[in-house]
Amino acid sequence: MGVPPKSQWMITASSGEPRFAIDGSYATVWASAPAGQAWLEIDLGEPVTLGGIEVYWGRQAAEL
After folding, report:
1. Contact 31/14 with Cβ under 8 angstroms?
2. Considering only CA atoms, which of 33, 53, 56 is closest in space to residue 44?
3. Residue 62, pLDDT score
4. How many CA atoms lie within 13 Å of 26's alpha carbon, on the beta-carbon side?
5. pLDDT (tens digit, 9 = 90+) per residue, 39-53?
């Protein structure tokens, strides 16, 4: 079973433009507003098994 195409994914976030997180471009980024707890949710539309996930932080790495 493969991962459904991105056009079928539902993506939401606490703020910002969540589609930028999955558009495949390093020129765009999803960034949350600087207040509160940020979250990003990606619903692939069906259960799938992933072998991994890549997070590219760029120059704006998360702070704890």
Report:
1. no
2. 53
3. 62
4. 6
5. 999 999 999 999 998
* Residue 9 and residue 41 in contact, taking contact as beta carbons nearer than 8 Å: no
Left (φ > 0), alpha (ψ -120 to 50) or beta: where does 24 sit? Answer: left
pTM: 0.78
Structure tokens at 21: 């997180």
Residue type, 10: M
Distance CA 64, CA 27 (A): 25
Tell me the backbone φ, ψ of residue 48, rounded to 5 degrees. Answer: -140, 160
Token output for 12: 């939401």
